[in-house]
Specification:
By secondary structure, this protein is α+β, with helices and mostly antiparallel strands. The chain has one helix and ten strands; from the N terminus they run H-E-E-E-E-E-E-E-E-E-E. The structure holds copper (II) ion.
Length: about 120
């Protein structure tokens, strides 16, 4: 019984720590400005990812490609784990599961145009 009570108390502490995040657990965007954001959805458009850098909680992140006339992909440069790159696409979504750490990625087609991004996962 004592052990169960302790587990409950620890669980509540964990929840409190998460909810103290001023940006909330599900993001919701920050306008997607060039200075970064806290969105769980990263927009893939011609020659840029937005927002980047992006700061999110661990879990699934979504790359949404819906308004690009060119083909793009998400190719990972570095991160705390090994991620499979996305397909090259003009529309659709790519939903990798991210663990805590810092990921760097790029579009292999437009790397020379500076189409790169960073995700900080906590
Ligand atoms: Cu591209």
């Amino acid at each position: 019984m004592q052990v169960q009570r302790l587990a409950v108390v620890l669980g509540l502490v964990g929840l409190a720590a998460c909810s103290s995040n001023p940006y909330g657990p599900s993001g919701g965007g920050g306008g997607g400005g060039p200075s970064g954001g806290h969105s769980t959805t990263i927009i893939v458009s011609n020659n840029r990812f937005s927002p980047t850098p992006d700061t999110v909680s661990a879990g699934q992140g979504t790359f949404s490609c819906s308004n690009a006339s060119n083909r793009h992909n998400v190719t990972w440069d570095s991160g705390p784990d090994t991620q499979t790159p996305s397909n090259t696409m003009t529309s659709g979504t790519y939903v990798p599961t991210l663990i805590a750490g810092i990921y760097h990625y790029h579009c292999s087609i437009h790397l020379s145009l500076g189409m790169t991004g960073t995700i900080v996962v906590h």
